[in-house]
Predict the 3D structure of the following.
Amino acid sequence: MDFVSIRIITDDVARLVAFYERATGLPASWSTEDFAELRTPSATLAIAGTRTVPLFSPGAAHPADNRSVILEFLVDDVDSVYRNLSGFVADFVNEPTTMPWGNRSLLMRDPDGTLVNFFTPVTPAAREKFAR
């Protein structure tokens, strides 16, 4: 088995895709106006509109309703990401902070309220874990 993607359901696909393109620096690949993907070497972030939900099961997912998942992106320099996104991101939960497990983390919310963490391993153990 291989974990390959996570999908966010939103009322405004274009707005959320634009946010993640700017935040990650990755271009989106659009399949339809209701579905786009941002691909990394290890996983894909899919963003889909509410009109796609009934294709699976009506009412199975609700936009802007997540309070339990944090999307995490491994980056080379979290402080640089913070400087780049200052003035663009409306809701930083914390500025870059070194966590007890050795990652320097930047936590923010996307326009739908989903938590997003950009992090850089900074201790030898954390670097080894992520082979950086």
Remarks:
- The first strand starts at residue 5 and ends at 10.
- The helical segments are 13-24, 53-56, 78-85, 124-129.
- The mean pLDDT is 96.
- Residues 51 and 83 are 36 Å apart (CA to CA).
